[in-house]
Amino acid sequence: MARGILTHMDNNNPELDTVFLAFADSTRRAVLRRLGEGPASVSDLAAPFDMALPPFMKHIRTLENAGLITTEKVGRVRICELNPEKYAAVEDWLKDQRRHWASRYRKLDQLLEQMKDKDR
Amino acid sequence: MKPDLHYSFQADMQTSRLTIRREFDAPRDLVWDCYTWAELLDQWFAPEPFTAKTKSMAFEEGGHWHFAMVDPEGNEHWSRFDYETITPKDGYQARDAFSDPDGGINRDLPASTWDVTFEDASQRTLVQTVLTYETPEALQQVIDMGMQQGMEATLSGLDKLLAKLTGATAK
């Protein structure tokens, strides 16, 4: 499921723009994409970025606070892992919301057509 | 929906905000009426398969709309929109909360504020709704509720399937 979202993010699929925007920061997005391949240590995750550790840790904490990843200290290394359940929950909710709004607005289109017919 | 009617739905989880923009092929007066008269709201506000049922409506600053979303089994899910500011035909701001059948607000469930604006777009009307959950926790709570409902729906689907299968074996 999580892998699926990451793929959609890569493709910039308009259906899932919403999810794309949910993770609006490019560093965090790259971290999530990397974690889609499996757990990794903070230092491994940080390696591709030209960024000091404190600001990088801030991104990790943001993702952790959002529940999108979990972290665990193993000896002196902090290991990060994707939380696929949370991913799926956010994705499902956004899809539901999008569908609800589309549905009510289709009804409003019909109502407006009826009202315009009456005016004529 | 006509294929060229603009529709966009954006979510920003950082600010707990949804922004929905939609064009309607009708003059602004008509669209405004559909948003502000209970008898018209009842005809469109609930998404399928729900229907909306108004108990009371006072579209004025400090007033509120008290209504239910009724599901196909007849269960009523009550809500209340409290109107905070209204600029006729341009927009309104309201607070959306879950309520009981008597209009009492349920403060344990997440509330959101709605900022709805209406503008002319050639012969059409563009409506923008910015829906903000009061806290990130409130947004988290609605997502969790959605997950729960999804699971319940799945389980009830499973019940039906099992009933069918058991019925089939019984025969």
TrEMBL record, chain B:
List the CDD domains hit by this protein, alphabetically: SRPBCC_CalC_Aha1-like (cd07814)
Residue ranges occupied by any Activator of Hsp90 ATPase homologue 1/2-like C-terminal domain in the UniProt entry: 25-162
InterPro entries hit by this protein: ASHA1/2-like_C, START-like_dom_sf
* Family affiliation: Belongs to the AHA1 family.
What name does this protein carry? ATPase
Organism, as annotated: Brevirhabdus pacifica
Traced from the root, the source organism's taxonomic lineage reads:
Bacteria, Pseudomonadati, Pseudomonadota, Alphaproteobacteria, Rhodobacterales
